[in-house]
Amino acid sequence: MQLSYWELKNWFTNIDFTIVGSGIVGLHAGLRLREIYPNSKILILEKGILPEGASTKNAGFACFGSISEIIEDLKTHTEEDVVQLIQKRWNGLQILRKNLGDATIDFKPYGGYELFLKEDESSFQECSNKLPFINEVLKPIFKTDVYAKELDRFDFSGINEYLIFNPFEAQIDTGNMMQSLLKKAVEQDILILNQQTVTSFLDNENNVEVALGDFSFTTKKLLFATNGFADELTKGAVKPARAQVLITKPIPNLDIKGTFHLDKGYYYFRNVGDRILLGGGRNLDFDTETTTEFGQTEIIQKKLEDLLKKVILPNQEVQIEHRWSGIMGIGNSKKPIVSQLSENVYFGVRLGGMGVAIGSLIGTELADLTKKWQPK
User: Any transmembrane segments, and where (predicted)?
Assistant: First the structure.
């Protein structure tokens, strides 16, 4: 890539901060850096035309975990860790709402529901039995009960007659959220370059040399916000997890409003106006879905269609309009990693499928790691 004098001068000279990834984390990191260092030069590099991973591809759930997910997490994490994580997700959602405004992100507090298939009676019983305990554990955060049993009023089929309702859950418009964040970054004089892939970087103690294919430049600090693509960076602590999603054509008289979870959060659906958006199924084929490649598989698409036509909208004519996928970042722990890799290199990754909730907070924490340093 042969750049002009002007391009080099304006875009690639005297850069204080370079952020890799223009998703929720990267943009919040940029906005926070601008707060801390008002006169610094900030550059964001993005390998896609739009944010590549899941920021513009997620289902738009403003959630912090269904009851069965929380019970599962308590089997592998301490109670303190789980409560901390939920607190972070909740705080992250408040940052997002405060930064962008509920009207901008089309925040709709319809509440969230967990459904249990009839053949999954044991899971329902476990959640039902542990419901008072989980409410007690979460009381310091929400000051009241979070989960309650409610009769199914949506006419779902093949499920337990009781759903577990969470009034604190909401839905947002993912596209509006990301467009608004991108506009905010540009307004704050943050440079964003798309279709730029970082091929290597070298921390020289005084600065970092960053290579973009056949071209390289230096930056004082380098921050990675690449979540699902952070396997190599974190030496395997973050693995990619593909999520397949579909959306229906408009459905006349659709009476479903809210965000819905099934099977420990592995399936999720919501209304988008008068359409149903449905995703998940990674648990049918973990190996294949541990990938940074976008795409669909027959086994998962068939399962999603079955759920749509047999459980969610039984006895109704429903047509699928569009399918896509996103790449999340997960690991053995649900705890996000916000860390310093070397003198001038930092990363904030492993959002565990909760990027909408926790991304704004992780971006802020990532930027705050640089506070020990002052630009000359």
Answer: none
CATH number for the domain spanning 252: value is: 3.30.9.10
**Same domain membership, residue 356 and residue 228:** yes
Query: Does pTM surpass 0.85?
Result: yes
So what's the pLDDT on residue 61? Answer: 97
pLDDT higher than 90, residue 313: yes
- Both tokens assigned to 252: 């006349």
Q: Buried b / exposed e across 276-301, counting CB within 10 Å, b at 16+? A: bbbbbbbebeeeebeeeeeeebeebe
Q: Give me the domain span that covers residue 43.
A: 5-56+175-236+334-372
Q: What is the CB neighbour count within 10 angstroms for residue 346?
A: 23
Answer yes or no: do 244 and 311 share one domain: yes
Q: CA nearest 213: which of 225, 199, 234?
A: 199
Q: From residue 306, how far is each of 250, 299, 303 by CA, in Å?
A: 18, 11, 5
pLDDT in tens, 60-113: 999 999 999 999 999 999 999 999 999 999 999 999 999 999 999 999 999 999
Q: Is 118 inside any structural domain? A: no
Give CA–CA dist 21/327, Å, rounded: 13
Residue 364 sits in a domain of what CATH number?
Answer: 3.50.50.60
Distances in Å between the alpha carbon of 266 and those of 56, 126, 232, 242, 284? 19, 17, 26, 12, 9
Give domain status of residue 214, yes or no: yes
Task: Report yes or no on 197 lying in a domain.
Answer: yes
Max Cα-Cα span within the chain: 68
